[in-house]
Amino acid sequence: MKFHIERVLLWFSKTEKTVIKFENNKVNVIRGNSSRGKSNIFAIIDYCLMSDKPNIVEPVINECTQYYGLEFVLDGHFYAISRKKPEDGIGADSVYMVQKPFADDYYPNYTNYQVSVARGELDRLFGIKDDAYKYPFGEDEKFVVSFRSFLMFNALTENIIDNQYEYFNYKFFEDLYLDKYDKRKYLLDLLLGVDTVEEIKQLTLADSLRSRQNSSRNRNTRYQKAMQRFMDKLNEAKKLVFDAGLAEKSDFSELTLDEQVEKFEGLLVDYEPHTMEITQEADSKKADLTKSLFQKQVQLNNIINAVREYDQYRKQISDITDSLKPVEYLKEHIDELGVTLWSRQIVDALQKSLEGLREREQKGLKEFASEGQLEKLRKDIHAIENQIAELDNIKITPIQNSERYYALGRLKEFVAILRDLYAAIPSAPEQIDEVYDHELRSHAEEIANKIAELRATVVESGLNPSIQHYFDMFSFLENFAGRPTRYNREHERLEIGKQGVLNYTNIGSQSNYMFLHICFFLGLHRYLLLNPTPYVGQFLFIDQPSKPYYESSDNNKSTDRLKLMDAFMVINTFMQEVVDSGNEFQIILIEHAEETYWTGENNLANFVTKANFDGDNALVPFHLITKQSDETED
Predict the structure, then answer these.
(1) Are 541 and 522 spatial neighbours (Cβ–Cβ below 8 Å)?
(2) DSSP 3-state assignment of 630?
(3) Ranges of each domain in the chain
(4) What DSSP designation does 472 have?
(5) Residue 590 CB-half CA count within 13 A
């Protein structure tokens, strides 16, 4: 993203202020002796860019300043921001932001944006909208990316420029954004054009499917083992009762597993051993019931037989009646037949018999017992049979049948074990389509692998060559000139080595580490210029490359001087390449070294001195410091 700073402002009062103007496509140098406030320039820039964690030095700088201001150009649009100084380490919660330069007589005495709203506006300008870049690093934590998340790629600060292990001063910024490696790795991937979120989604999916498959297999194994233990014991119990004659195989054929255990429990109740007295009493009751049963069955059978015989009797009457029907004809035509007196007497007798039969037939069935009485008799018989059956269960005594008694004792143990084993059987595992899951997992892993390959390719063929480009420009790398460099994402540092053997642990002096840091940041921004991204401004703050040397004008001919000039020339070359490519970039360089390092005979065309803090000159003028000190003493 095209971004450069126009001015940094400090208002000490309505009439006094410090203004430092910067140029685009230049290395803007602010130089001077120590304790002049130079390093606070970036802290002020950061504070005006909505920092919640002010890093401005409290003594002197913040004590004397009332407001801080920043003017910058972002993607061709001018912005000016003023913000009241922090109080007790807490930044002001509102700012004044406009899209034009501050007037010469402007003094910040009002605001128009809450910091959170202004930050959201800048997020939008940097292409970060809504929650599109919300990244999950855990169920309880959400990492919401802001334009501020990327500022660590714009700052090579004093406390890391020669550090052996650290390349990003993420501690300078809000811990909320950058305190974890996964977050920083994600941000770098965004710059490199690598879709880490999609990669993690696919890896999570693959892990989930793999876990589901393993879980299913484990559950199935546990289920099969538990079921096998139960079935082994169940079959052992069934063999026991079959051998002892306590039940038949057919008694279990239609039962579920749980019902089979209940069947065993029923056998224990049915065949519970009793004393001789109980058995004798049961036999006596059974004899009485058997006698009563016999009587009722005889009664029922007699009634049934009587009804059957009466039915046969009525049928016989009906048959005889039918056979006598011709008598009626003879009676009517007897005179025509010319019969004798004797014949007439016979016909009259037969006629009388026929009438008697019809009279009996018309009387109907003689009721031996009502249907209700018959049903009650049947129910009584059934109840007696049930009572006898119950008494039949009281039939085992230890003395009478020791084998069955032993079997029942063991069965009681089996039932307790079976109940425990049955309760221990887990629910039947869900059947999953392992073939489909395998295909889905393979597809997810393939996508994740391609993203990982892209990352490796981008770093190897894009970022590393850009870093190597500037590394090869250094002339004073002692024993490391011409060696390969490689950025190690896991350790977040640059490695240097020979013949493929890389050693990032120790490469000697702090000067070498300073060179590596400059190579990395210049190489990173060269890559970003070739592969534009909206998230990072085309701007770099470099704080005191001279730190390893603490150079002064008394040893201008030292090797350290040549090394520092070497670093400046590489920075100058970077800027020249930007200008030659028609692109834009801005560097703000803080330095102790004298201007002679980049002016005069050592002229570096892209370096421009924007402030000299020597003598009484400082970021906060000395007379204000003295005044503040006097007021504090009073």
Answers:
(1) no
(2) helix
(3) 3-174+490-498+507-558+573-633, 276-395
(4) T
(5) 24
